[in-house]
């Protein structure tokens, strides 16, 4: 009966080490319910093109006014989204305001591979640092 209930995992920010979201993975439907522990609301996936457009705009701004870290982060997100074009994307924000971008399929794989109840997201992979 435990298999039918699914699995709960908490997401940990790799930068500040705070738990910022909870995920319930439904085992039979292969779906996820993601809840922010910052805003206490459900986090819904976004279409990749909307996040991609935001990423390109951020990169353009960073190349004009940003620091090296902001430029590299924006390029990383743009590159990641280019590789995963057409997939549904989760845009997750930590308490420290770092944003993690993950496709739903990669997110599902990362959660499935996690040992225990916590999954630490890498701040170096498809993430934006906190603003200014």
Please describe the topology of this protein.
Blueprint: H1 2-5, E1 7-13, E2 19-26, E3 31-36, E4 42-43, E5 46-47, H2 48-65, H3 68-83, E6 88-93, E7 99-103, H4 104-113, E8 118-121, E9 127-128
Parallel strand pairs: 1-8
Antiparallel strand pairs: 1-2, 2-3, 3-4, 5-6, 6-7, 7-9
Task: Describe this protein's structure.
- The chain is an alpha+beta fold and 132 residues long.
- The chain has four helices and nine strands, in the order αβββββααββαββ.
- The protein has helices spanning 2-5, 48-65, 68-83, 104-113, and strands at 7-13, 19-26, 31-36, 42-43, 46-47, 88-93, 99-103, 118-121, 127-128.
- The strands form two sheets. The chain has a five-stranded mixed β-sheet. A four-stranded antiparallel β-sheet has the order 5-6-7-9.
- The mean pLDDT is 87.
Question: What's a quick, concise take on this entry?
Answer:
Helices cover 36% and strands 32% of the residues. The chain is of the alpha+beta class. The protein has a five-stranded mixed β-sheet. It has a four-stranded antiparallel β-sheet with strand order 5-6-7-9.
